[in-house]
Design a protein that fits this description.
Blueprint lengths: L1 E11 L4 E10 L2 E6 L9 E4 L4 E4 L1 E3 L7 H8 L3 E6 L7 H11 L4 E4 L1 E2 H10 L7 H8 L10 H16 L5 E3 L9 H14 L3 E3 L15 H12 L3 E3 L2 H5 L3 H13 L4 E5 L4 E5 L7 H6 L7 E3 L9 H10 L4 E5 L6 H12 L4 E2 L29 H16 L5 H15 L21 E4 L20 E6 L2 E5 L2 E2 L15
Parallel strand pairs: 1-4, 1-5, 6-7, 7-8, 9-10, 10-11, 11-12, 12-13, 13-17
Antiparallel strand pairs: 1-2, 2-3, 5-18, 14-16, 15-16, 18-19, 19-20, 20-21
Helix pairs in contact: 3-5, 5-6, 6-7, 7-9
């Protein structure tokens, strides 16, 4: 089957091309790019004049493992949604269950450092489920340092997951912030030996906790330099907060000295996690200059009025999702910090998308539009459209070419070594995978808010995943499940 996209403004961040052209797609691959109907007409011809045509967005940091959540991401321009910060274990089960259910978008998973440690240190059997994973975050049994035997045991589990096709190692270091720094060094050495990246939620900064075993952002740069491993710093905006100046300067110094550290950010002043996370304890919030009122329960909207209530919910339901407000998006100075993280040279856009939850713990729905009552973080539905609105449409900080470089090309390059199939993604030249977003440059914007979090973004006119239309004329196609697994190279 052939599809011809005619007359759009074509952006290819791989070659630097930005101009009016036609794009021919044949059996899931881009077979021609040029003017005047390259390669002849397609079986289907779509007039995209006045629209921007580029490679679909590759989200390195999505905890969305459902059709419902992936549909929201599709409407935001995403064609590949990967859970790399946390990962899932066992990874074979994660891939098998996604394939059996069907996915609108491409998908993939890292080896879960947290699950491997929880299995060895706390006897918690992983089940490749995000709900179970959130509950484990509040269990302190796995958050201690390991004995030499325990370290060897869980490193072996991680290595086995890499052999099974995991896309690197996801390290939730911020959820076990007191662990021996030597363990993180051992993980990086394993990653270097295996030829895979790590994806790290770093531990606390020294400004927040002077007693931390290592400064979070400094540690990742040092370990990358010492081992030569490729190390990805997750959501630098949320882990840096108001210390982003120092963090970015330190990361840039490390990169200039040869450290292979990549950075991601998202355009929101609030994060989302499980209420039992270590950094949401009352004492940790105080260290950050925050209070219980900075925390809001996702499903009920409850904002904590005091420490006693926060401690009660953390004890009763540690896996319950919540929102943590770390910057005030209404404050010009805080907005500038978010802009600074996104504008950092080569910073990658990644969503940290969360599942959609309905009452009684339901996290899946085959309905579209999504049924009422669903809640999530607005970044699930709006990260990419909001970033384009802020960085291209409103501030002019990025050109469209730069925007696609940050949202499509650079994230694909993080995966090149671990997954050779990624080399055909994040680009819009002949031979590339036909993962394509077509958007209205004047209309693209986010619609989701903290109070109405499942509203799809506006402005994505067409979305193709492996050449199959998932969004057509701005409407999601509920019969489209073309997502394929992206896996690490077997070894």
């Amino acid at each position: 089957m052939r599809t011809l996209l005619r007359g759009g403004r074509v952006i290819d961040p791989a070659t630097g091309f930005d101009g009016i052209a036609d794009v021919l797609v044949t059996d899931g691959v881009i077979t021609a790019v040029g003017a005047g109907g390259p390669g002849g007409a397609g079986d289907t011809e779509i007039d995209v004049s006045g629209l921007v045509v580029g490679p679909g967005f590759i989200d390195l940091h999505s905890h969305v493992h459902t059709i419902a959540g992936q549909r929201l991401q599709a409407m935001d321009g995403v064609t590949t949604a990967l859970d790399l910060e946390a990962g899932l274990m066992p990874v074979e089960r994660a891939y098998a269950e996604a394939a059996a259910a069907g996915r609108p978008l491409h998908y993939g998973f890292s080896a879960s450092w947290g699950s491997a440690r929880a299995k060895v240190l706390a006897g918690i059997e992983p089940d490749a489920n995000i709900g179970s994973g959130l509950a484990v975050l509040g269990n302190t049994a796995w958050q201690r340092s390991s004995s030499p035997g325990e370290l060897a045991a869980w490193l072996s589990l991680v290595d086995g997951e890499l052999a099974a096709g995991a896309l690197g190692i996801g390290v939730l270091l911020g959820y076990a912030p007191a662990t021996d720094p030597g363990e993180f060094l051992a993980v990086a050495r394993l990653a270097k030996e295996a030829g895979v990246p790590t994806y790290t939620h770093v531990r606390e900064l020294v400004e927040v906790d002077p007693a931390t075993p290592a400064d979070g952002s400094g540690e990742i740069a040092i370990v990358a330099a010492e081992t030569g491993a490729a190390m990805h710093h997750c959501h630098v905006n949320s882990t840096s907060g108001r210390h982003v100046d120092r963090v970015l300067a330190e990361l840039e110094a490390g990169r200039s000295a040869g450290s292979r550290v990549t950075v991601e950010a998202y355009p929101y002043g609030a994060g989302s996690t499980a209420i039992g996370a270590a950094f949401l304890s009352p004492e940790r919030l105080k260290m950050k200059g925050l209070s219980p009122s900075s925390v809001v329960m996702l499903e009920t909207g409850e904002r904590f009025s005091d420490e006693a209530r926060l401690l009660q919910v953390r004890a009763e339901d540690p896996g319950a999702p919540c929102i943590l407000e770390f910057l005030d998006e209404k404050d010009p100075l805080d907005r500038a910090l978010l802009h600074q993280a996104l504008a950092f040279p080569d910073a990658i856009v990644a969503s940290d998308a969360m599942p959609v939850f309905w009452k009684d713990g339901v996290s899946e729905s085959a309905e579209w539009p999504l049924p009422p009552g669903g809640t999530t973080h607005p970044r699930t539905a709006g990260t990419y459209a909001k970033t384009l609105r802020l960085m291209v449409r409103e501030s002019g900080a990025w050109t469209w070419l730069e925007a696609f470089r940050r949202c499509s090309y650079l994230p694909a390059r993080v995966l090149d070594e671990v997954a050779p199939a990624a080399r055909a993604k994040g680009r819009l030249d002949v031979g590339a995978d036909a993962d394509i977003v077509v958007l209205d440059p004047a209309a693209i914007t986010d619609a989701a808010t903290y109070f109405d979090s499942t509203r799809p973004s506006v402005g994505v006119r067409h979305l193709f995943v492996a050449g199959v239309p998932v969004v057509s004329d701005g409407h999601l196609r509920t019969d489209a499940f073309p997502g394929r697994p992206l896996r690490g190279e077997p070894r």
